[in-house]
Write a structure and sequence with these properties.
Layout: H1 9-17, H2 21-43, H3 46-62, H4 73-108, H5 114-131, H6 135-145, H7 151-158, H8 162-195
Helix pairs in contact: 1-2, 2-3, 2-4, 3-4, 4-8, 5-8, 6-8, 7-8
Length: about 200
């Protein structure tokens, strides 16, 4: 019986492309802990770090036949996990911007007069931008940003691939980012105009 623990990364990569399950398991056991640590240092969430590394290994297995590793296996894996971390951080930043923009508006405007009307207008503007998204794109966005479903959960719920989910989110976030930036800027401009001198 072959001792896969003694094989080099290069040998394991070749066997992986030939769909040798034991080679995949050895790569997983050899690198899981290091990749998890790398992801965790950046995202500071056990759940997020585990999901990132799990996604990496899932992709590695699914694409095993077509993946061509031109550098070392270690370099390929760590580059991949860093990319997934950056992708996660960007999505979380946009999600936080969306939540913070609503919170800023609610916190700043507390007078039950003109400011209340402005609060409603600004909040409505955000919701209108969401409503203008194509139906499937809007559904994906709301499941992700309002109900906090993962890409995998959304894919299952809507009967689409995770890649399609990512494409819809990218489209929605690109459109909403500009709108939300305008809303936040306007909010602070008006707040400072009304309260800056107090």
């Amino acid at each position: 019986m072959r001792d896969f623990e003694k094989l080099s990364d290069e040998e394991l990569s070749v066997l992986l492309s030939k769909e040798v399950t034991a080679a995949f398991h050895e790569i997983f056991n050899r690198y899981w802990s290091q990749l998890y640590t790398t992801a965790y240092r950046r995202v500071r969430s056990r759940e997020a770090a585990e999901e990132i590394v799990q996604d990496l290994f899932t992709s590695l297995w699914v694409k095993r036949k077509n993946t061509r590793i031109h550098t070392s296996l270690a370099a390929y894996l760590f580059t991949s996990v860093r990319y997934l971390v950056l992708n996660h951080v960007e999505k979380e930043a946009v999600r936080k911007t969306y939540k913070d923009s609503l919170q800023v508006v609610k916190t700043v405007y507390q007078n039950p007069t003109e400011e209340t009307v402005l609060l409603n207008d600004l909040t409505r503007k955000i919701e209108e931008e969401i409503d203008l998204l194509p139906l499937k794109c809007r559904s994906v966005f709301e499941l992700s940003r309002k109900e906090y479903k993962t890409n995998k959960e959304i894919a299952v719920m809507l009967g689409i691939s995770e890649k399609t989910v990512e494409n819809h989110l990218t489209k929605a976030l690109t459109r909403l980012r500009l709108s939300l930036n305008d809303v936040i800027s306007l909010t602070f401009i008006i707040w400072f105009a009304n309260h800056g001198g107090k």
